[in-house]
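cache lookup: miss for this entity combination. No prior model stored, computing from scratch. Input as submitted by user K.M.:
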Amino acid sequence: MCAFTASATAAEAPKLHGFVEADMGLKVNDDKLASKNGYNMAEQRLEFKLRYFPDELAILKKWSTEIFFKTDLLMDEYTEQPKWWGPRELYIAFTPFSFADVKIGEQILTWGTGDYIFINDQFPKDYVSFIIGRDDEYLKLPSYAGRLTLSSSLASLDLVAIPAFTPNNVPNGRRISFFDPLLNRIVGTQSNRYFVEPPMKINNTEVAARLYGTMNSYEWVLYYNHGYYKSPVGYKNQQTGLLYYPELDVYGASIQGPVPVAGGIANFETGLLNSKEDDYAKNRLVQDSTAQYLVGYKRGFKNDFEVGLQYYIIQMLHYTAYKNSLLAGDIQDDKVYQQLTLRLTKLFANQTVNASVFVFYSPIDHDTYLRPSLSWKATDAWSLVIGGNIFLGNQDNADWGQYKGDSNIYSRLRYSY
Amino acid sequence: MKRIFPILVFLLFLIGCWASNVYAEDTQSGKTAMSEMLLAYYYPQTDAKSEISMRIVNRQGQIRQRRLTMLRINEAPGGDQSYYIYFHEPADVKGMSFLVLKHLGRDDDRWMYLPAIDLVKRIATSDKRTSFAGSDFTYEDVSGRALLEDTHELIGEEGLNAQPCLVIKSTPKRPDEAGFSYRKFWIDKATHLPLKVEHYDLKGKLYKVYETQEIKTLQDTPTITKAVMKDLEGERYTEITMKEVSYNVGITSDIFQERLLRRPPRQWIGD
């Protein structure tokens, strides 16, 4: 009666997908400190991704095994060299038991409830890509990890082991000028800092765990991280500019769900970041432990309009000890740091045009980071994005204000296949 | 003066009758037909897997294509449902997936998964009138309006393409919230499936027309396999084709969790 052929036959050859794009980012308030003036992004990128099901082996087929490979070929005119990025993702995933999923290899890991704010997501990030205007996807860096997910209808558990450390890519002056506390001013190429990564040893394996479930539309999560800060927030040797990634344990929780009557989704996330080498803030060379809180709310309105708000607090836990540990000339941080964010998104023309702005604002440092963007899906394959990364603030050592000489507008033309 | 009182009561009674005719036009036959339509259209069998293609054609004749797999399970006939939607095409959204837990009487729970950043995102959009994947179908068109949100009146019987149909006028109890003044359904008497739906805007003007183009009986279940939604103002239309529909494939409600988003079930999604 029905002439439908069998769906998705396993014998099909794996199909290649990806995109090719050209990106350009011009500095609008150039402080001429980084290695090139006028622009901070000029690149062409070719992405390939391939998914393969090794069904030839019965056991692998039974476990619905897949191998996924994704890589970028980047021609970066800023660094004047073609750069083979190596695989961005290369993993094998399988389901050995009905309740267990395993994923081993280079993979992107993300969890937590924040929008561009990460408390319990301690996985590596690329803040340089974020600031120069690359696609959002490049904010996340892959980890070399093994992930086990155990699922049940009551709760699920993610266990992640990361044997090879991957740090955040933070501004170092070559492409993005920043406030260097060693020189006590905003610097670019003059910055002379070295980062030392924890060596790859069994004992240095990082562990991340998440226990989660949903009850009556409300998602609850408990988090645990054992490893290192992903940004270099400790000094090995202040005189020689040697920085490192101190040990860090994080204990956290979050809840997310609908708001009665008003509608929309609210979230609350908290984390205790225990900086183990800081010795209760007696060690002035290492970041103090903090308690962090995030409250968020987002709501959709008619005609594809959405608003999101967040309030983020970082509280230093041993402030008196921290103050007493400071030497003359050290910059004293505030005990409580606060940040507000706003996201506005509006879709037009049958969802082919997306106008959005994301704003970070700190009432403590009085600095602002604006991320406006306008994207247009001209066809199913072609898209064009124009956007900006605008930093405002008078305080040179403020979180966002320090990048004011890096503000940029960018464009991206992409063809997906 | 005393005599005026019973007259007033009588007048109020008359006004009441008139008002109830205008505002509460729920007729038993209308409601029954609508309830049968909802069950036949949105709830056939306990679970279903569909391979769906959409062709969105705009005023200039430019075509956009969507290809997706949808899994559905009913918690109870006419009650809560769970949906999972996986996008195969276009290339830039390939692998993106959605999880929708549809609740009667309160907002649905919706999640979206972006594979490139391994992000499971809770969707805050409570407006069901937003377009589904950029097409002329809204989320509401895809997942249905609850029976009690509208009043349903049988206004006649008509043949449509030689099929005898019941014609139902369905009026939202809160038109401003619904965003339209009423819809007119042509419901096939034999299959209870809608053959045509006219949508009238708040000013009473026809602005959107749905038409069923093909019905096939699959696993003893009459199933719409081809339909079109025309946007009269935008001069656009979306064609939806069910490439394959299978019922009772063994989907269980406990799989509708985050895991489904992060690891698409290959036995149903393929690829």
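stored under new cache key. The two ends of chain B are 83 Å apart (CA to CA).
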